[in-house]
């Protein structure tokens, strides 16, 4: 199954993301009803169609015309689902539909009593098990390990990766800690005192107990003990993925002038940490002196991607294959080839760090890393930390791409965010900053980044043999763009300078390269740093600054100026007089206020072979609080001496300390952030959505915040001794006004009990999720915790004042069970946490949801999970839900809330099935829809007959078509997904008889060929399926014909689909030797008209011969076919259907083995 949120990066940059988890149904699964096959069920066709099976239809459910609420509108994607396993062994199910993602946590084996904190900030979802929360708050766990949406986006979901990669960092003085036998050790990372491991996800629970202690996962304990965290492990990081980010560009850097002076990089070793190098390329023959493969091990670092070869050519290509036209920056430098990316352009942080350490040990003078992350970094990530530690006086200079995250500020990624990195942005041939180039300042401390810029647009360099670049330039070259191409220009120039100055430190090389850069007029320091690379000036100019840049942060209150010293060094034999000029602008490029930044002199004499200094003073009282500024100090001397020093100034806005005195239910003051919380406490600005961290203070927890209004929420755990279970209290204050230092007291003893009840006296609580959700900066933010009912922990909530300026919901989602049904109660209040959070729910407030679950064959083992989710009102796109293990075949009944407060709830119910929970073969997605109180809904999942289904959309010029070769009938919604394994076929799209797009993937076709009106389109699908977990739809073909009139933009494509179903048993079989009625059901779709003709043929010999069935239309407008099955138990029935509507839409499909036959004794 395709992974959820899979992103394909066209920019050649690196990514360091996050890890995640998946849903548990066992902890909440009620006793199933009607176990075993159903041989004579009621008419499932009538059940589904008469009880809100499709959007816009109403039946006996009581929703009534116009009362039902469903999701609608065109979408360029079908819903997708993914499972991910957390480091704790717990799992999380993620479903994305209509652009929004939901997460349902599920405890791992032996962890059924664990609680989960669920945070959502915009589209990022974080799921933290309760026994991991203390270690996360202590800084011992990388937060990315729990950011589940990022983890799936990085390709770390269970379907894509069976092992979880981590970096285990040891405490100071500790070199290693004995690890479990179930983990696989990878690179040893001495620079950060760490070892990389991969943990088999099925063994993650054992690895977690090794880290946290044997008590991990046991109910009632907040902080486990006795594990490796107490015996030498300082922190566990996610080993995040990294991805890959000259005839005109080299002269643009003025490298040829440096060559004329004899500086060609001779004697200098440059390490290329990338996808490998094609050593046989004519431009690179003899250049590589050592190579190492950090992906698979060994000494061969072949480049199957082409990125590393292209980068190497920019650094030191000879131009042999082009007559010298495409010559690199330092043609006589030699290379170390460290393969840290695989042939798909992906690696891990540990492979990159190992490559960095190897390059330093091999005495590389320069290390080029054309790698960056999609996410911005503050420079404290493991790769940045390793870079800083390796940048010793006798170590290499690391030249790093800034990243291709675009023109937004604060977008420079790792490792370019590292202090010691020479971080490179990209410019075009006119010296303008490329649109894709990441901008500064650095996230977190607003420091100066990037440091310098170089050509990175349309760069022609070496092409690796056997690769197929998007823009080939003959046999030996390719044209690429990215900061990946800009960085090796600077690395090559650094090699020229290192040839001139073989004893200089990395910091000295970096300072000279930035000092001699040439700014492009109109481009700011947060776009280009010091300016464009000037290789010739770098090797000729003898006066330079000793600092690469200056960065100053000014804390409120702004009472006094602050001064830094800028030092110039003169390596020539004569004194040099410099004239100093200062230019400073705000973030919009407008001149900064006079007096904000001043120099203590405008001229300066730098003595021969000596130094001179200028004092740079920032007076924050002259600037605007809450703003940042950037500028350059330009020093000009006689001749062509020009020195650039970029600077960054950040002035804290009017800010104060907000102190939170939090008292637990025992009356004890919570003194540390890592104490007593399931949900990490935070303070947020509701208007901007900005989150402020809390730290320990003298009187409580303190956040430094600007003047304004803030919201706070958390879940507090209070322990009541070794016998009683802990209690959980939701504490919140959504309206905190801060205009001076403020102290707020939140006393858990004042909170009231949270509870929901039903009329059934024998109902027992299985689990409760409670908390708040609100809009912060226009994006949803949630603070939920899920507590198993078996733990019997009391739940409390502290009342708040009403919130009237934004969406604010207090939510209780309580799952209860009797022997006959499961209750799902979604109750609460909009606008505040109430004084009395108890709720008595009547049966009349609920709707009845009955589901049957079928499997595709009687002789297969089949596991099933039913995930139900209620979307909350208020525009948050947030909801609550749970997964339930279900018998397959079997059935289940739920009674669920129809409304929340006074608004309707949208419920979706998806079914996952397969040989096991870790081998999911099939997912059937339901539409989200509302149900009236007192209504009855019947759902049939996985039911025969199995036949092809198609859908599609045209969104912003991209046409996407998606298919299910063996879709059940009728299906609960328009989407189901089968495993891609074992299915082969192709799809074509034709316009007026001419094929305009095709795909060898029978599930998907994407094309940028625009669809326009007044044409007839035909989609054809063929597919075969040979899998052990299904007996049906072994071969299918389909043809959809549809006319389009008018503009085709942001529309669902009108593909007509007709299902065939009947009274099959729950293994997809019908009675042999008897007449059988097939219901032929046109499925609702946008712009599809009324079906006017349906024909059906049947075959009992896998399509060798066909016979026409009798098809009639009922007075109610339904189509029905009657067939007489042969007396052949164990045989199969194939179907061939044709239909068209009154708007010119047609469909014809064939399904070999659409269903099976069973004798009367079965």
Outline the structure in words.
With 1162 residues, this protein is mainly beta. The protein has four domains: 44-76 and 656-941, no CATH class; 253-542, Rossmann fold (3-Layer(aba) Sandwich); 551-651, Immunoglobulins (Immunoglobulin-like, Sandwich); 947-1158, no CATH class. Helix content is 9%, strand content 40%. The chain is built from 13 helices and 74 strands. β71 and β72 (1119-1124) form a beta hairpin. The longest helix is centred in the middle third of the chain and has 18 residues, at 483-500. It is globular, with a radius of gyration of 33 Å. The two termini are 33 Å apart.
Give a quick precis of the structure.
This protein is mainly β. It contains 13 helices and 74 strands. The longest helix is centred in the middle third of the chain and has 18 residues, at 483-500.
Count of helical stretches: 13
Radius of gyration: 33 Å
Mean pLDDT: 87
Largest sheet: 9 strands, mixed
Measured distance between first and last alpha carbons: 33 Å
Domain unit count: 4
Global geometry: globular
Structural class: mainly beta
What is the strand content? 35-45%
- The percentage helix is under 10%
Number of strands: 74
As laid out across the biggest beta sheet, the strand order is 5-4-43-42-45-46-51-48-56
Poorly predicted sequence stretches spanning 5 or more consecutive residues: 1-76
